[in-house]
Amino acid sequence: MAKLRKKVAEKFSVGIINDNIYEWEVSIFGLDDPYEQGIFKARLTFPATYPLLPPKFKFISEMWHPNVYESGDVCISILNPPGEDAFGYYHDDECWTPVLDVEKVIMCVISLLDRPEPNSPANLNAAIEFRNDIALYKKKVRRLARRTIED
Fold first, then answer.
1. Do 73 and 120 form a contact (C-beta atoms < 8 A)?
2. Region 21-40: what's the mean pLDDT?
């Protein structure tokens, strides 16, 4: 827990929603360009079978990112249940395992924000823009980051 508290001060904070231990609010901040100055809100929802199955991570703040669906759901292999992917995008060793914890999940999402994977997109338009016009992509993300602190 001390490790989590240290990270809270640096990149994110977490809190339980309405005394429901299965629903957490996450605020991500302190990111690098183009997300800097933004405060991005998300929900971390744990299944009753946690830690055997992974939590769901969904941004509440509007996001423009190749690996975030328009719904806000994050597409990252560690949040997939154990087992081989039928489409071959990831391997079993990249999926959820009960040894992963909340800090690891959030830090992986932060890392994904910093280093998108446009070849495995959840948002095809953001992925195409990221590959073909990085300046426009960053401009949109900066605009969203500014909007998060105005809301």
1. no
2. 94
pLDDT tens digit string along 50-74? 999 999 999 999 999 999 999 999 9
Provide the CB-side half-sphere exposure for 121 (13 A, CA): 15
The yes-or-no verdict on residue 93 having pLDDT over 80 is no
Would you list the domain boundaries of the chain? 2-150
Q: The domain 2-150 is classified under which CATH number: 3.10.110.10, 3.40.50.1820, 3.30.559.10, 1.10.10.10?
A: 3.10.110.10
Percent of the chain exceeding pLDDT 70 equals 86
Active site residue 75: yes
* SS3 state at 100: coil
HSE on the CB side for 70, CA within 13 Å?
4
Each residue's pLDDT tens digit, 15-24 = 999 999 999 9
DSSP state of 79: G
What amino acid occupies position 21? I
The active-site residue, picked from 75, 79, 109, 145, is 75
Measured distance CA(93)–CA(3) in Å, rounded: 25
